[in-house]
Amino acid sequence: MLNTVPDQTPRLHVAAAVIYSPEGAILLARRPEHKHQGGLWEFPGGKVEAGESVLAALARELQEELGISAIEAQPLLQLQHDYPDRSVLLDVYSVTAFQGEPQGCEGQPLAWVTRDRLREYAFPAANQPILDCLLDSAAD
């Protein structure tokens, strides 16, 4: 869904997932070089289409990108971020159970990463609040 912010920059609505392995590692995917923020690591997900619910978009994107189906997904946080060339609204879910074996269906590299190693990966700026949330909860 595209909204406009006061400066008329289109806002891209994205559903994203923090996907946990049974051992507690988090799945990351590397963005293709030719895409916005290419080469950086991200939490899997994608654009919410017009008329589509966030959960439906998340289910579709996880199937298309990773070949998995979320079984347990809970809202984690919602955030907005403005890049110079676009704005994003991220609805982030915590996926603690899924069916299937994640694979990079679009050729993207994947990595299972423990929380203590997340800072070793370069992420888009919009992902910083997600990292802060994950690392703050790990400190508890």
TrEMBL record:
Binding site for Mg(2+): 45, 65
Cofactor(s) needed: Mg(2+)
Sequence ranges assigned to domain Nudix hydrolase in this UniProt record: 10-136
Catalytic activity: 8-oxo-GTP + H2O = 8-oxo-GMP + diphosphate + H(+); 8-oxo-dGTP + H2O = 8-oxo-dGMP + diphosphate + H(+)
GO BP of this protein: DNA repair; DNA replication
Xref: CDD domains: NUDIX_MutT_NudA_like (cd03425)
SUPFAM superfamilies: Nudix
InterPro entries: Mutator_MutT, MutT-like, MutY_C, Nudix_hydrolase, NUDIX_hydrolase-like_dom_sf, NUDIX_hydrolase_CS, NUDIX_hydrolase_dom
Key words of the record: DNA damage, DNA repair, DNA replication, Hydrolase, Magnesium, Metal-binding, Mutator protein
Keyword Hydrolase: yes
Family classification: Belongs to the Nudix hydrolase family.
Name listed for the protein in its UniProt record: 8-oxo-dGTP diphosphatase
Species the sequence originates in: Nitrincola lacisaponensis
Organism classification: Bacteria, Pseudomonadati, Pseudomonadota, Gammaproteobacteria, Oceanospirillales
